[in-house]
């Protein structure tokens, strides 16, 4: 199979000709700049197609699609029904799940019952995935989720932030105190199959109905500690929302989670964003998270 070049991917005449062999195209978007490892297009704002960007990720690309096909019809919320189209340029495609992103501000604007429904639906979806751990493990390849292990170590974070005079003295002091105590390992880890990337851009929400229509992007799905799974939710939603999701999950599962550990993991991720891009945008975001922790 051939791999699309970047030039080909951004040539809409070339892409229209290529995809017209399989679809009746009225409109075709430019590649999504946030897609990881793929060139992702929207056909007629109704169908999502993804091409692997490199030959060395083709196997992983196909494994991701195999996971989606295996999970189809087994989750409490709809997920993409992904199909592989083999040919000169192999790609995957699925019907777009209609809906919009929902951030905490949008969630706060909903009636209380709808906010609770959102939390209950996320908890049920997560619990359903966790409950399928053995079934998924025995049928589809799933990797170990090791993102946190690839993040900078506490000593490196302390050194970098201590030297950054654009961070306030109180922020630097908080970071030093936090990382003197923070331990990445979790002696109460609960290892399950998880999504690991539930966030606004991966949730299709219908604001008219006030409900979740589906969940996207299983590119980070794997086996790992569910505290880290919930911490990704805590990155983008407030503590009250996170607490309601965790409380509902605990009722469904009969498990007890360490919400303080979840919050620590969420904060650690914000620090990673700053370490990866130490600019004013991420300084401000990190400072805002510190204020949340201190409140």
Total count of strands: 8
Distance between the termini: 55 Å
Q: How many DSSP H or I helices? A: 12
Query: Structural class, from helix and strand content?
Result: alpha+beta
Shape: globular
Strand content: 5-15%
Binned, the helix content reads 40-55%
Largest sheet: 4 strands, antiparallel
Low-confidence spans: none
The ordered string of helix (H) and strand (E) elements is: HHEEHEEHHHHHEEEEHHHH
Strand order of the largest sheet: 1-2-4-3
Q: How would you classify the quaternary structure? A: single chain
Describe the structure in your own words.
The protein is an alpha+beta fold and 295 residues long. It contains twelve helices and eight strands. Helix 9 (226-236) crosses helix 11 and helix 11 (259-276) runs antiparallel to helix 12 (280-294). The radius of gyration is 21 Å and the shape is globular.
Summed up, what is this model?
With 295 residues, this protein is an alpha+beta fold. The protein has helices spanning 6-9, 12-19, 58-71, 104-108, 112-131, 133-139, 154-163, 169-181, 226-236, 239-253, 259-276, 280-294, and strands at 38-43, 47-52, 83-85, 91-95, 191-194, 203-206, 211-215, 222-225.
What key attributes describe this structure?
47% helix, 13% strand, two-stranded antiparallel ribbon, 295 residues, alpha+beta, globular
List the helices and strands and how they pair.
Layout (H helix, E strand, L loop, with lengths): L5 H4 L2 H8 L18 E6 L3 E6 L5 H14 L11 E3 L5 E5 L8 H5 L3 H20 L1 H7 L14 H10 L5 H13 L9 E4 L8 E4 L4 E5 L6 E4 H11 L2 H15 L5 H18 L3 H15 L1
Antiparallel strand pairs: 1-2, 2-4, 3-4, 5-8, 6-7
Helix pairs in contact: 5-10, 7-8, 9-11, 11-12
